[in-house]
Amino acid sequence: MAKKRVMLPAEHVDLTTVKYEHEKIQAPRLSGFMLKLFVKIVETPVIGSLIISFFKKQNKLPELLQNSAIPEPPMFRPEFPFQELEPVVILVEEDGKVADRVESALTCLPHYGPSGCSDSTASFQYWKIRDYAHAYRSRLATPSLVAEHIISVLEEFSCKKPPAPLLISFNAEEVRKQAAASTQRFEQGNPLSILDGIFMAIKDDIDCFPYPSKGGTTWYHEIRAVEKDAVCVSRLRSCGVIFVGKANMHEFGMGTTGNNPNYGTVRNPHAPERYTGGSSSGSAAIVACGLCSAALGTDGGGSVRIPASLCGVVGLKPTYGRVDMKGTLIDAATVAVIGPIASSVEDVMLVYAAMLGTSPADRISLKPSPPALPNLSSNDSLNTLGSVRLGKYTQWFNDVYSTDISNKCDDVLNLLSNTHGCEVIEIVIPELHEMLTALLVLIGSEALHVLNPDCQDRGNSKWTYDVRTNLALFRSFTGSDYVTAQCVRRRMMNFHMEIFKKVDIIVTPTTGLTAPVISRNALKFGETDMWVAGYLMKFIRAANLLGLPAMTVPVGYDKQGLPIGLQLIGRPWSEASILRMAFAIEEVTAKCKKRPLSFYDPLKAT
Known about the structure:
Elements: E1 5-6, E2 30-31, H1 32-42, H2 47-58, H3 61-65, E3 68-69, E4 89-91, H4 98-108, H5 129-137, H6 143-158, E5 167-169, H7 172-187, E6 199-203, H8 231-237, E7 242-247, H9 281-288, E8 294-299, H10 305-311, E9 314-317, E10 337-342, H11 345-355, H12 360-366, E11 372-374, H13 379-385, E12 389-392, H14 394-397, H15 403-420, E13 423-426, H16 432-451, H17 454-458, H18 465-475, H19 479-499, E14 505-509, E15 527-528, H20 530-536, H21 541-546, E16 550-557, E17 563-570, H22 575-588
Helix pairs in contact: 1-18, 4-11, 6-7, 16-18, 16-19
């Protein structure tokens, strides 16, 4: 029997003695016939359990889950200490009209001047929500005209071979109907908000009536009917948003690449032979290629931030509990939250303002700070940046596959210091491997909670092969493992709250790897590649395990022209602070944007 590792209480850990350990995930990359064979073996009684046990031992999971004595009690969902109100913000009313919140967000933005998409591949700019609003109000375009161009492109995507659909569910007549109603409102001079006529896609695990919510599967919609919008979708609809359909995703969110043999794998707009990242693959790609101003994703293990980073756009994961999860396939998850993806920080802010709102139950139990937005139109906003302390764990920060990533992120930190006076402070985050292990247990346990008993009733044959490997691992976790993971959650919360006494925002690269290549033999049957997953998930763990707000902002490209993202992780409820910093990053990197290889301009087409 292995000797128990007795861990000191978090407050007694001497951070100066913490040594960084490079993580190396031990697992083969499998696709095609070999993946099918492996799945067949791993699902075989006894033999499969032995293989899973071997894999877990190779990756030191039992060392934490069975052989460690953790002094902290379990934390079954994130619990946050009281947070002071952030400076230079505008409070928004959760219980008021959604359009009023969006109007408050609009007043926070700097003065608008029409920008426009550049044809140059060098100083490229996306159209912003305010550009669309200006075009509609100036009668330069109508939502119906824009809709026709978007519909033609989406229909073109559906004919690609091999298939690479941005959307799983799409109805051209439904889009035309919404666009016609919006066009009529503009003709009558009564748009509902700045978001009226703005086109958005909704990830396939979020309800958007009348479309089914399949979660990227071929069957889940058969056991769960959609009768109305999810709460966040309803809020956006009340502002006049036009929904183009349900965005493609990695099956049931159980993957980081976006590979989906059921419907076809979405291609990265910057490099069609590469993945978008997952699981919100279609949401990130449809924004990055210019068809939609924004999209909604869900983030339970980096699923908003990873694809946004790999596709060169902006993605926000709000604080756990900040957004009502009712009407999603994962509404009971404690590691997941809905988040907006858009091509700019200001567009993320406008969409976030519309969709935010804590559920009544979470408002009682979590006691959230009032939602606030950074007042970017105030001169004091820039002055505030000078006092921001950015926490950087250098050894972790630099542990990436290519130094292009860490160097580009470092360049941006230097720009922030030189331009705004931000201070970069060295920090240490202990027990990173333990944090990742705990997150893996919680993701798996919560996924099985959602799927049982339907998963057992239908067996494994309905799932893709990579999901079946994940399910085999998830089923091996015990109740004791689940409780241990919750003890780690409290322990890591204690560590991070101490860190946030010294810094305001933790900065990391968003991913440790830029967009990976799609191998040809992965398209039909999928693939499992834990090495890739490890690099893509390297920096995302704290935001999901602890429920912290986090955001990815594009900061440049590697030598192959693939996007690189910088991640900002904030204190609980500090969305305003990371939005302000993200806006500053966007400004200092504005000249670095490149036009994606796959790009469509719906406004120019009108």
